[in-house]
Specification:
The structure holds two protein chains of two kinds. By secondary structure, chain A is an alpha/beta fold. Helices cover 38% and strands 29% of the residues of chain A. Classes of the chains: A alpha/beta, B mainly alpha.
Chain lengths: 323, 268
C-alpha cells in the first residue's frame, strides 16, 4: 500500500539572459529562483491498484514518481510504501520496486540485454529457476526473444522499451512506476506495450502508477486517474466518473459552407478545428436555442452533437484546475 | 565480494575489449609514443651535457621509466573522466539509486577493473621489454620488484579514485566537473613525475610535495618497480597513501550525503 501525506518539492534553479551579454553577465551573477514542483500532495493507493497520473508538461507527474521511487528527496511531507520511506532507499524497498522511464535507458547501453539481465539476476539475487521462468514469460509475451543478444544501443526504440520493461520486471516488483512508457513509440508498439501491461497487471497484481500523455494508455489500463496541475491534484477518482461529471455538457461540431473569422467563432465560445469546421461545448438545456442560432447566423452544412470525450474533459480540467 | 561484483568486473572487461582499434591504440600507440619521445629527449639532453648519467639515472633506466609511466598513469586514472559526473548530467545515474546495490561499491569495482586490466598490460609490456632489452636492464629489475611496483600502482589507483570520486560528485551541484578533473589529472601526472622524474625537480619542490598525495601516485610506484625503495620506506610511503585514501573516501561520502538531496534525475 502507498500512503502519501503533505508531500511537496521545491526546486532551485538559476536563470540567464539570452545572448553573449547574458552569458558574460552570468559568469558573475545569476538570478536564483525557486519553483514548487509539488504542493501538499495526499494520496492513498491500495494493493493491486493501477492509477493513471495525468497532467501537462511540467505539472509535477515525473517529480512525484521520482520521489516515490526514491531517487529524489522531497522538501516536505511523508510517504510510506509497504512500510518503507522511499528516499531512504533501503535494499528491501528497492527489491520490491521498479521504475521505468520512457525517456531514460536504465539497462547497459553497450551490452546485449541478456548481459544486463544476468547482472540484474545477481543484483536482485534471483534463483536460476525464477530467472529462467521470468525471462521466458517476459520475452515471449513481449515478443522480443530474438533481440536479446544484440547490444541495446542497436535496437529500435520499441525494442528498447520492451527490454527496459523486461529489466524492470525481472524481479517481480510489487510496486511499479511507469513514466511515459509509450513515448515515441509507433502505434503498434504502443499497443503491444499496453497489452503486455494489462496482462502483467492481471497476472501479478502489482501496484502500478502510470504517467502518460497518451489518453489511450490511460483509458486502456487505468480505472482510477489522478489529474495534476501546477503541482497539485485537481482530480482523484474513477475515470468513468470524469465523463459523468460533465454529463450536462454537449459538444457540437459544425461544418459551414464558408469559412469565418476566428473572432466570430469565438463570440459563440467556439474553437476552430479546421477550415469551415469548429466545435463548442454548451449546456444541454441550451442545445435547442443555440442550434437555432447557428442556423440563422451561418450557412450550416453539417451539425454533429456528441457527449464530450474524456480527452476534452481532462484537457479542460487541466486548464481550469477545477476539482 | 558479492556475486554481482564479480559480474560487473567481467562486464567491464568485455566493454574494454569491445572496441578493438581503441584497445590497440591506447595500449601500444600511447605507450610507445611517450616512450620514444621521452627517450629521444633525454638522449639529446645527455648528449648536449656530455654526460651518461644525471641524478642517478642513465638512458637505460630512463627508458624503463618511460615504459612504466604511461601505463602506470592509466592504472591510476582507471575509468575515463566523467565516470560519475557524465551520468549525473545525463540522468542515467538513476539506475544506481533504484537497484539494490551500493553506488560506491559499484563505481569502485568498475574503476578498479580498468586499473587491474592496465596492470596486466604493464606486466606484459615489462616481460616483452625484458626479453628484447635484457642486455641493457640493470641488476635491480628483478621481476619481484615489477610485481611489487604494479601492486603499488593499484594501491595508488585507489587513492586517485577516491579523489576523482570527490570531484566527480560535485556534479550534483555544478553540472560540469570536466575542467576540475582535467586539472587534477594534470597535477597528478606532472607533480607525480609522469612527465619528468621527480629526481629532476628541485629539492624544495620535492620537500613541498611530500605533504601532498602527488608523489605517491607515480613516483612511488615507479621507484618500487625499479627496486629503488627499501621495505621500511615502502611501508612509510604506502601508509601516507592509505591515509590519503581514508581522507578522500571520507570526503566523497560527505559530498554524497549532502549531494544526494540535489539530485533531480533530470538529463538528456
Amino acid at each position: 500500500m502507498i500512503e502519501v501525506n503533505g508531500l511537496g518539492k521545491d526546486f532551485s534553479y538559476t536563470t540567464k539572459e539570452p545572448g553573449l551579454k547574458g552569458s558574460l553577465k552570468a559568469l558573475f551573477f545569476r538570478e536564483k529562483k525557486t519553483k514548487s514542483a509539488l504542493k501538499d500532495i495526499n494520496l492513498k493507493i491500495h494493493e493491486g491498484e493501477m492509477i493513471g497520473l495525468i497532467g501537462a508538461n511540467g505539472a509535477g507527474k515525473t517529480t512525484l514518481v521520482k520521489i516515490l521511487a526514491g531517487i529524489v528527496h522531497p522538501s516536505h511531507g511523508t510517504a510510506s510504501i509497504m512500510g518503507h520511506t522511499p528516499w531512504e532507499r533501503s535494499d528491501d524497498y528497492r527489491r520490491q520496486m521498479a521504475l521505468i522511464m520512457g525517456q531514460k535507458a536504465q539497462v547497459w547501453w553497450d551490452l546485449p540485454a541478456l548481459d544486463s539481465f544476468l547482472l540484474l539476476k545477481e543484483i536482485y539475487q534471483l534463483s536460476e529457476e525464477i530467472y529462467q521462468q521470468n525471462i521466458k514469460y517476459l520475452s515471449e509475451t513481449l515478443m522480443i526473444s530474438e533481440q536479446l543478444k544484440i547490444p541495446v544501443r542497436k535496437l529500435s526504440l520499441g525494442e528498447r522499451m520492451k527490454v527496459e520493461l523486461m529489466a524492470a520486471l525481472l524481479h517481480n516488483p510489487k510496486v511499479i512506476f511507469l513514466d511515459e512508457p509509450t513515448i515515441g513509440l509507433d502505434i503498434s508498439a504502443q499497443k503491444a506495450v499496453r497489452e503486455f501491461l494489462k496482462d502483467y497487471q492481471k497476472r501479478f497484481k502489482p501496484i502500478i502508477i502510470l504517467t502518460s500523455h497518451y489518453m489511450e494508455d490511460i483509458k486502456e489500463l487505468c480505472k482510477r486517474i489522478v489529474i495534476i496541475k501546477d503541482g497539485q491534484f485537481v482530480y482523484d477518482g474513477e475515470l468513468s466518473q470524469v465523463q459523468k461529471m460533465m454529463g450536462d455538457e454537449k459538444v457540437l461540431t459544425i461544418t459551414t459552407e464558408q469559412d469565418f473569422k476566428d473572432e466570430k467563432i469565438q463570440a459563440f465560445g467556439g474553437k476552430r478545428k479546421s477550415e469551415n469546421v469548429f466545435t463548442l461545448s454548451i449546456p444541454r438545456e441550451k442545445l435547442g436555442e443555440m442550434t437555432a442560432k447557428f442556423f440563422s447566423e451561418f450557412a450550416v452544412l453539417d451539425l454533429n452533437i456528441q457527449d464530450p470525450s474524456i480527452e476534452d474533459i481532462i484537457e479542460s480540467m487541466m486548464k481550469s484546475g477545477s476539482k | 565480494m558479492k556475486n554481482w561484483g564479480r559480474f560487473v568486473i567481467s562486464m567491464e572487461l568485455r566493454k574494454i575489449l569491445a572496441y578493438r582499434s581503441d584497445f590497440w591504440l591506447s595500449f601500444l600507440g600511447q605507450t610507445f609514443i611517450q616512450l620514444f619521445v621521452g627517450r629521444a629527449l633525454w638522449q639529446s639532453v645527455f648528449e648536449a651535457s656530455n654526460v651518461t648519467e644525471m641524478n642517478g639515472m642513465n638512458i637505460d633506466t630512463l627508458t624503463l621509466y618511460y615504459l612504466i609511466a604511461p601505463i602506470g598513469t592509466r592504472i591510476l586514472t582507471g575509468e575515463n573522466i566523467g565516470f560519475i559526473s557524465r551520468e549525473i548530467y545525463e540522468g542515467s545515474f538513476t539506475k544506481y539509486l533504484i537497484y539494490p546495490l551500493s553506488f560506491f561499491s559499484y563505481k569502485s569495482i568498475t574503476y578498479l577493473t580498468y586499473s587491474l586490466f592496465y596492470s596486466i598490460q604493464l606486466l606484459i609490456l615489462y616481460i616483452l621489454y625484458s626479453l628484447f632489452y635484457y642486455h641493457s636492464l640493470p641488476d635491480f629489475t628483478h621481476f619481484g620488484f615489477a610485481i611489487a611496483g604494479t601492486l603499488t600502482f593499484l594501491i595508488a589507483s585507489v587513492a586517485s579514485m577516491s579523489i576523482a570520486m570527490s570531484i566527480e560528485l560535485l556534479a550534483l551541484w555544478v553540472d560540469n566537473t570536466w575542467s576540475l578533473m582535467v586539472g587534477f589529472r594534470f597535477f597528478m601526472h606532472f607533480l607525480g613525475g609522469a612527465f619528468i622524474p621527480l629526481v629532476f625537480f628541485p629539492e624544495w619542490a620535492n620537500k613541498a610535495l611530500e605533504w601532498t598525495p602527488f608523489p605517491y601516485f607515480v613516483n612511488f610506484p615507479i621507484q618500487t618497480f625499479m627496486g629503488n625503495i627499501s621495505l621500511h620506506d615502502w611501508i612509510k610511503q604506502a601508509s601516507v597513501l592509505l591515509l590519503w585514501v581514508l581522507v578522500c573516501a571520507t570526503i566523497s561520502k560527505l559530498i554524497w550525503k549532502r549531494g544526494q538531496y540535489q539530485y533531480t534525475g533530470v538529463g538528456i
